[in-house]
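DM from R.C. (forwarded with permission)

"hey, sorry to bug you on a friday — could you get me a structure for this? deadline for the figure draft is monday and I only need the backbone to look sensible"
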Amino acid sequence: MLIGFAGLGRMGRPMAAHLAAAGHTVLAYDPHVEQAPEGVGLADFPDALAAAALTISMLPDGESTRGLVIEGLRTVAPGHLHIVMGTVGPEVVRELADLPHLAVIDAPVSGSVSMAETAAITTMVGATPEQFERARPVLAAMTTAQFHAGPVGSGSTAKLAVNAVLAGLSQAVAEGLLLAEAGALDPATFYDILRNSAAGAPYVGYKQQAYLAPESTPVAAPVSLIRKDLGLALALAHSRRLILPGSEAAFAVLDDAVATGLGQADMAEVLTVLRRRNGVMLRETLSTAPQTGALS
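My reply, with the result:
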């Protein structure tokens, strides 16, 4: 099958390569990439993807996804199916699904870059049952599990909910490490305990090096991307009049991370932000404490 693929970033590049390895003819578009993965063709313009019966976008935001679908895919043939795999939020996906010239479903993914490289990521799909069955063989070439979350937009809602948990878990691990350090525990020893405790979720295991040796560990999920996703989750919560105090707190820390130059660092660097915050608070406490001394 000829598949059009837009977005050869950290996640999209290995995903497109898996499609080619599965025997599909893949034509990709990414204006920031000069060389495609092995077996993947590279288009000069996005409208070249319209020749395919099925296209996929793995783009970073709603604006670029809208541009691709509305402008780049305006000449698709009847029956064309587009799969939004970037995290753009359910409202954008439903808006695009209302377009008359093509069918749009969403299938955002959960997992790290290393998991994308081994096709071990998971996808959550918002589609009709018929669309899900049509897309599933294609999705299975890139992912280890495919969940039909419900109608269009449901996959994006599931992804935002998952990443709200992930952001909270990331901060919880950082706070646990800070507390362990405050009690003079060796960080590596504590992390082994944490990983094998009741709190030892898979995330805790595969993020160990990111927390303990960030300077030598490749970035799996940058702070800026998680902040964007959590912002979308909070926007969805606010539109439904929900209050999510844990997510609000995690977003504030991610905001601090971006503001202090850590936007492209791994999300485990929330530990650095919390260390800085606590260092400032400690210095302020010491500077305002009453000074006492021996009487002469």
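R.C.: lifesaver. Residues 90 and 180 are 39 Å apart (CA to CA).
me: no worries. The beta strands are 2-6, 25-29, 40-42, 54-57, 81-84, 103-106, 109-110, 121-126, 143-150.
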